[in-house]
Amino acid sequence: MPTINNIRTNQPMTSGGNVSHAETGKGKPTAEAKTSATDSDSVSLSSQGQSVGQIHQQLATQESFDNEKVNAIKEAIANGSYVIDADKLAANMIKLEDDLKGL
């Protein structure tokens, strides 16, 4: 595969010495020029990539947040009645970390 190094404006690009006959107008075609049009690239995702795709699809179908719950929390913060349960918060953080390790 040709590399792109030291390209300057208005200079022709070359492929590192493997110039095809179409570029020079003479000679035999190089191996690159003989490449079949049926060759194609393919991509495959790892199981982790597939899992991320599935999670993305699931999240795309769900509402982004519960507006009623957000308003209730805002009101509780504003009137000083919002209480944070440190043990529950820590347990949820640990659960999240464990869930992420499985991906």
TrEMBL record:
Classification via Pfam families: FlgM
Keywords on record: Bacterial flagellum biogenesis, Cell projection, Cilium, Flagellum, Repressor, Transcription, Transcription regulation
Region (Disordered): 1-57
Biased composition (Low complexity): 35-53
Anti-sigma-28 factor FlgM C-terminal domain residues: 41-95
Compositional bias segments (type: Polar residues): 1-18
The keyword Ribosomal protein is assigned to this record: no
Coiled-coil stretches noted in the UniProt entry, renumbered to this chain: none
Domain of life: Bacteria
Keyword hit for Ligase: no
Family, as annotated: Belongs to the FlgM family.
Reported function: Responsible for the coupling of flagellin expression to flagellar assembly by preventing expression of the flagellin genes when a component of the middle class of proteins is defective. It negatively regulates flagellar genes by inhibiting the activity of FliA by directly binding to FliA.
Protein name from the UniProt record: Negative regulator of flagellin synthesis
UniProt source species: Photobacterium pectinilyticum
Source species taxonomy: Bacteria, Pseudomonadati, Pseudomonadota, Gammaproteobacteria, Vibrionales
Gene: flgM
